[in-house]
Amino acid sequence: MREPAARAFQELSALYEARLRPVPRDIGGRATLAVVGADVPVELATACGYVPVRLVGDPRPSAQGDDPGQEYCGPGIDPVAVSILGRVLAGAAAESAGLVACADNEGTLRFFFYLRELQRLEPRVGVPPLTFFDLLHLPQRTAAVYSRRRFDALSRDLEAWSGRQVTDANLRSAARQHDLVRDMIAQICARLRNGPHGPLLTGAQALAVIGASQVASLDTWIPLAERLLAASEGMEPQPGVRVFLTGCSHDHPAAYGLIESLGAVVVGEDHDWGSLAGGPRIGEPADIRDALVHRRVHRASASAGHSAAARAAQTISMARACRADLVIAWSRIFDEGPAWDVPAQRVAADATALPFLAVPAQPYAAVPEPTRTLVEAAIQRIAEDRKAAR
After folding, report:
1. Contacting residues for 26 by C-beta, under 8 A, at least 6 apart
2. CA 110 to the chain's CA centroid
C-alpha cells in the first residue's frame, strides 16, 4: 500500500482500534451516545447532536482475570453480549450521555434486560442512563405501527437527555450524513474489494475501515474514507482464494485473520460490521420518521429477523457479486440464529456450484486448531483446482 493510501488507512485503523477503549465524553465537542446493536436508528442520535458510538466486546483477558459480565450471566449467552455487559459494568460507557440498546438478536436483548435489572437492584454510578428500542422485523402493518411508536418513544428519551428537540429538518440532515457514509461504504466494497483489478484491501483491513464508521465522528471518518478511495490507484491487488463470509457478526477480526493467513482474502460478508453497513439509503422520503423505521425493518436480512430462505438467497447473491471462490459460514457459540441458516445456504450454494464450508460454533475471537485445519483444507482444495485448471 503506497504512502497516501497507507496514511489514510492507518488513521482509519486507529479509529477502529479505539473501539476497545472507554467511550469518551465527547468527540469534536459533541457528546457521545453509547449504542448496542444494529437496529438503533443512529440518525436520531445525530439529530440530537450526539456522536453515536457502537459498543463492542473485548475478547482480551482482563488484567484481573475476571469478567463482571460472566459473573451475572452465567453460561449459554452470546459471549459478545456478555463481554459488552462486563465492559459497561466496568465503566466503558460512564462518560457517554446515555446508552441505547435494541433487540437485533438474542444476545443484545439479554444484555439490556440484565443491565436494567442490575441497575434496579445494584445501581452503579458508572452506568449511564438506559433506554431501549424495540423493532419488529415483520411485514404486517401492526408491526410497522408498533415500531413507529417505539421510535417516537426513543425520540422523546433522547430529547430529554439532550435538551434538544428532534425536528424533521434535523432528522433529514442527519439522514443525509448517514446516507453519505452508506454510499462510501458501498464504494469501498465495490472499488477496493471487488474492483476490476481484484481486492485492494484484505478482509481484515476492510473490516477496520468500515467498522471505524460506527465508532467515530462522521466528520472525521468521511474525509479519511474519501482520501483512501482517492488513493486507490496506487494500491496493489491482494492475492489468494476469494472468500465470502456469512454467519454471525464480527466486531473483532480473528476469523478474518485466520482465513487470510491460509492463502485467502475475504472479499465480502453479510453482517452489520461489514458490507451490510453500506445500505440501503434513506433518501428524501415524504415521512422521514417512517422511513427511518422502515429502513431498519427491511434492511438486508439478518438471522434474527428474516427467514432462512431469504438469508440463503442473499448470501449466494452477494457471494456471486463478489466473485467468491468459497463461502464460509462462521457461527459463534450461544449465537444460535446463524446456524439455522446453514442448511438453506448449503442448498443454494450447491445449486450454483459454489463451494460452501460451515465451521462448528466457535469461541469468541479464538480459533481452535481443528477449525484452522478445516478451513485450510477447503482453501487449499480450491487453490489446487485453480492450478490444475491453468
Report:
1. 32, 51
2. 18
